[in-house]
Amino acid sequence: MNNAHITSKNPEAPPRKSWLDYVLLIVTALAIPAALAWVGHEFTEMEAKRVEQDRSASESRAISDGRLKAYSELLNKREESDMGVRSQIFSTLLGNYLNPVKGDLTKRMTVLELLASNFDESLNLNSLFWNIDNEISAGRGPKHSALRMRLSRLANEVKERQMDVLSASGDRTSWDVTLRTGSMELLPEKLLEFDDPSSAKGSGHAACVFKVQLLEWDPKKRSIFAVVRTYPPPGDRNSASSCINQQGHESRDSQPWSFWIDEFDFPQITFSRMSEKLRFSLVILDYSEEKHFASIGLVFFPSSRGGARDRPYLDTVVNSLNSAVLNPGGPHVVSPNR
Predict the structure, then answer these.
(1) Residue 12 and residue 16: Cα distance in Å, rounded?
(2) Can you tell me the distance from the alpha carbon of 210 to that of 207, in angstroms, rounded to the nearest whole number?
(3) Are residues 196 and 206 in contact, defined by beta-carbon separation less than 8 angstroms?
(4) Residue 326: is its pLDDT beyond 60?
(5) What is the pLDDT of residues 279-291, one digit of tens each?
(6) Furthest-apart CA atoms within the chain: distance in Å
């Protein structure tokens, strides 16, 4: 009786583990260290790749900075050398022009040709041209007639060269007009447009309609009084009341400009500022008093392609640099603001 009672009190025996349980236990014990080892290995490789990429980028940046520094130093030295030579040439030419042999118009004409070939973008040669022209007008004979033709040809060559330079980044047009004393004529409107190469792609388009009216012709001074008005292109939604480029630099609607133009005005020197980034110039491309004929040219161009006289103020440069620091992702082009 007692033995049977004790036997009934014993707990049930635990179930026997199968071989799958042992396999699972072994796999689990091995998998965790293997996974940790794999993660550590991958992390180490990724870190090594990152360090190598940073090192390569640093080396590339150092090489690029070195090349840029060398290139900048080379350009600076070349500019300094060029400026030194040009300064000597300018001093010599101007000295010969201001102190020539008395009455030697041919020599003065040669000096003017050299000045026009080397300094036409930075020097206003209008007064020198008129000085030679007045001396030619004071004399007579075939020599003076040949010098006048030579002077007019030189002026036209300079104007055409500058028009080509400006229109390469802008747009140009021209009108042939009949000169009359008293009332003149209203020239046909022209739409001019361009894409500023110094702006981000697709953000520097500018378009404007130009209306030019010639009010008076002065045969003695060989000059014409002109009024220029600008309008936005028809149907341009971006310029409801302005001739505007897509960067938001405006010129006022129907903005009038009035001025005299003569045979010795040059487009890179005698231009009009429409806005911070837009310029236009109206010049006489060809002139014949005997035929009462003139060819009037107009070029519309960005300030970034203007001559040496169209440079930004210092505060404009500083503001542009500050804007570039605050907003490095956007386009920042330093332009004159006068």
Answers:
(1) 12
(2) 10
(3) yes
(4) no
(5) 999 999 999 988 9
(6) 162
